[in-house]
Design a protein that fits this description.
The structure is a homodimer of 298-residue chains. In chain A, 32% of the residues lie in helices and 24% in strands. By secondary structure, chain A is of the alpha+beta class. In chain A, strands 4-3-2-6-5-1-12-13 form an eight-stranded mixed β-sheet. In chain A, a hairpin with a 5-residue loop joins β12 and β13. In chain A, α3 packs antiparallel against α4 and α7 packs across α9. The mean pLDDT of chain A is 93. The interface between A and B is large, with 43 and 44 residues.
Chain lengths: 298, 298
């Protein structure tokens, strides 16, 4: 794409970065199918003129609804066997942002984040965030209902012993009007202490959108926080660096801090970036004039 | 200071940015006294060779212990009349970071953040963070014990109706070894919904330290989050911009998003920065070879 020539609209999605273990390999066909469906829905919506924020949130909601990903219904379990989820959404045009951390009953945490976006707060945590969502008509269910057989098996295997113990889902969008948005959602790390929050719901760490770039990160959350990963990319793009360079610099920084992961990003010109320092990251990309691309491993 | 000529050690502290109302004016002498005491203690410690992180945390602990500031014992009340506190600390040399959000029983939230720093997590929230602190010997007290007459009166007056409804305390340090650290602590906004978290405990928003700069912010937390304020300063300093310029650019960005506030920062050369877009910010600064300076209004 020549500089200045927009390829809007465009959308990228991810289903979390981590090792390429048996679970990902066993379900590669199913994961590929889901990613293709989500991408097709996003493309249709963008071609109909739907705004970037709505599309990014809808992508994340669909990924939350798929048990194969560590977010929403597929969330990993904390060490005590319960589920705690976090999510964030940000609209680039006015930097409106909404996030929740440590929610335990919201079926689609990204909808709770969307609800907050544009209000007086940016981040609500814990039971107050669950209550706020419920009172505004967001669907909830008991924490037990999130505890799947798959997640219990994952917890029993121990942290880091296999793939999908980490994980996040995310989407970034450039809409037909040239506006950007990002959304991220996670069930945390399998076996994490209750109360632990990673980078996903933190604006500037795991999620960011401004009028130049939208970013959603996944991987070793603490390293992404300490790298200020998403804000770092935004700062570099703002300083005129090409998106791919900026994204690589952020992942390098995460690596210097001992972390691995991946990220998706798109700039205002429609230039997509997919970067990965982990073995695998289920992901998909579509931009106007191109065929959708879906991949699982690196 | 000539470029390259370090003025290490150096320390800056703040007691929150906001309007210059009757409460600040009535207590200006007392506030000035406390700031001078904290600054003198920090100077002594730095001259004895104490590391930047320990000094920054000790400064914040002392400010948390003073009821005049909105953090620790002086915390504002949420809309439901309870206290929720947040804090973060970061060491520049290795970017180790620790933070807590929404704690309700920890006497000095900055000590709970210090405890987390260097472990596997960066951010713990809610009751799990209180429990973690208590189990590791950090002093706690019932939430009721934080509810002061002063805070109740503040809540009764309504949000934004006077000074000290917002507020934060913070410190940044450069130690004799040339290492940087930052620490921030807050009781949130008087009348805030329970569960609301601002920029103070968020690495890259209200608190940051790397090997070039340490930053602690205060003000309209949501705007600082949406500006990625602290990470923005770090990115600009990393790109070679003078600290004062970088700090001004971050506050400008906060202003474009409709927010006001202030920040303290110090770079690896010992150059201090104090920026303020609010009417008042109790603050103090000392660097080697200079007299301590303490101010309350702009």
């Amino acid at each position: 794409v020549a500089p200045g020539q927009s390829t809007a609209p465009a959308v990228l999605i991810h289903g979390g970065a981590g090792p390429l273990g048996p679970r990902l390999r066993d379900h590669e066909a199913e994961i590929t199918l889901v990613l293709n469906e989500v991408l097709a829905g996003a493309r249709d919506a963008l071609e109909r003129g739907t705004d970037a924020l709505s599309v990014a949130i809808r992508c994340v909601e669909q990924l939350e609804d798929c048990e194969l990903f560590n977010a929403g219904l597929g969330s990993a379990l904390c060490a005590d066997g319960t589920v705690e989820m976090s999510a964030a959404a940000m609209r680039g045009s006015d930097r409106a942002a909404g996030a929740v951390a440590g929610v335990r009953t919201v079926r689609n945490p990204i909808r709770a984040a969307e609800l907050i976006l544009g209000g007086d707060q940016v981040l609500l945590i814990g039971p107050a965030a669950d209550r706020h969502a419920r009172e505004h008509g967001i669907a909830t269910q008991p924490n037990d209902a999130f505890v799947t057989r798959r997640a219990r098996a994952r917890l029993a295997l121990g942290t880091g012993s296999e793939d999908l113990t980490h994980g996040t889902v995310g989407a970034v969008c450039l809409d037909a009007a040239g506006l950007l948005a990002a959304a991220t959602s996670t069930g945390g790390i399998s076996g994490q202490p209750p109360g632990r929050v990673g980078d996903s719901p933190l604006i500037g760490a795991g999620t960011w959108a401004d009028d130049r770039v939208a970013v959603s990160c996944t991987g070793d959350g603490e390293a992404f926080i300490r790298a200020g990963a998403a804000a770092r990319i935004a700062g570099l793009v703002d300083a005129g660096r090409p998106l791919a360079q900026a994204a690589a610099a952020a992942l390098d920084e995460v690596g210097r801090l001992g972390g691995r992961g991946g990220l998706i990003a798109v700039d205002a010109g429609g230039e997509p970036a997919l970067q990965l320092s982990s073995e695998a990251m289920p992901r998909g990309c579509w931009s106007a004039g191109n065929e959708p691309v879906v991949r699982v491993s690196a």
